[in-house]
């Protein structure tokens, strides 16, 4: 029973980080209909910037995190305003998706060129310290991941539901042309969503670097692991992204902890996709997805 509770804690902590990644996918998709396949590379870049500032430049850890958040947020805004917005008005959505894939490839290659392929030290103050209670081990980095994610999600809820920009984001997600017609600055709203996605990428990279390993070139692949969360929860639903992320984390860790030998040694890697397919068979638009209205 102790093993179950230990796995439950670790799965919930990992799921909270996946919720951040899924939320980043969702906020961009809601505002522009684009799935940002560069999210993993942004996550990777955020983790490496924190590591470089802390270890190489001697910047205090939380100062490095703040600088990385600002840098990735501004980079996301610049990418959306200078390139993506111009292309989106002239090209089909598929071309825009391919541009995000190109951005992801460029960022990943750039990180490898600048920092090399070796694993780095994050420089976080938590290290390998842990709290021991009731026979369980609570790594501080995982505890802080839960706390930070809860604060970030609460802040996003306030922004989304109780602010003018939140209303503008929801209006743009509902009908971009109608939003433009009533004077909503759609370009500014979409730039804001890219800033949010960049900020979330830094936080996700921070805690993923402390959760399974230190910053390394394969860290960006974690975004693909979290991708089923937005499908499971419902594409375009922030609540679905959060719930889906937590569920995917729990499924992955529990499947790894109770990995049946007859299913192979790496069954936990495909378990989230199996659950996702099962949910979609029953609810094609995900747990919190809504079928789009169609005019007859």
Explain this structure:
The protein has 296 residues and is mainly α. It is 72% helix and 3% strand. The protein has helices at residues 2-32, 39-56, 61-88, 93-115, 140-161, 164-174, 176-181, 186-210, 222-233, 238-257, 267-282; strands at 130-133, 136-139. The protein has a two-stranded antiparallel sheet. Helix 1 (2-32) packs across helix 9, helix 3 (61-88) crosses helix 8 (186-210) and helix 9 packs across helix 10. The protein is globular and about 60 Å long.
Fill in the keyword field for this structure.
two-stranded antiparallel sheet, 296 residues, single chain
Provide a concise account of the structure shown.
The chain has 296 residues and is mainly α. It has eleven helices and two strands, in the order ααααββααααααα.
What does the secondary structure layout of this molecule look like, with pairings?
Blueprint lengths: L1 H31 L6 H18 L4 H28 L4 H23 L14 E4 L2 E4 H22 L2 H11 L1 H6 L4 H25 L11 H12 L4 H20 L9 H16 L14
């Amino acid at each position: 029973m102790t093993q179950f509770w230990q796995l439950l804690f670790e799965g919930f902590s990992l799921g909270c980080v996946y919720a951040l990644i899924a939320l980043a996918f969702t906020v961009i998709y809601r505002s522009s209909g684009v799935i940002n396949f560069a999210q993993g590379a942004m996550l990777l870049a955020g983790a490496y910037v924190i590591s470089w500032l802390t270890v190489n430049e001697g910047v205090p850890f939380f100062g490095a995190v703040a600088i990385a958040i600002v840098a990735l947020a501004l980079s996301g805004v610049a990418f959306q305003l200078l390139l993506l917005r111009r292309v989106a008005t002239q090209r089909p959505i598929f071309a825009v998706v391919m541009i995000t894939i190109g951005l992801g490839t460029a960022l990943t290659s750039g990180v490898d060129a600048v920092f090399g392929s070796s694993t780095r030290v994050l420089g976080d103050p938590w290290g390998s310290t842990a709290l021991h209670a009731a026979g369980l081990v609570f790594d501080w980095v995982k505890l802080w991941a839960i706390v930070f994610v809860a604060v970030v999600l609460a802040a996003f809820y306030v922004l989304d539901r109780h602010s003018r920009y939140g209303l503008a984001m929801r209006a743009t997600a509902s009908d971009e042309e109608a939003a433009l017609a009533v004077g909503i600055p759609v370009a500014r709203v979409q730039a804001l969503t890219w800033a949010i996605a960049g900020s979330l990428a830094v936080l996700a990279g921070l805690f993923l670097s402390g959760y399974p390993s230190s910053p390394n070139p394969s860290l960006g692949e974690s975004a693909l692991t979290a991708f089923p969360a937005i499908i499971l929860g419902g594409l375009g639903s922030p609540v679905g992204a959060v719930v889906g992320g937590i569920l995917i984390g729990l499924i992955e860790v529990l499947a790894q902890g109770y990995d049946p030998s007859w299913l192979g040694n790496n069954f936990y890697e495909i378990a989230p996709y199996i659950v996702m397919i099962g949910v979609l068979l029953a609810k094609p638009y995900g747990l919190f997805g809504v079928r789009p209205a169609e005019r007859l």
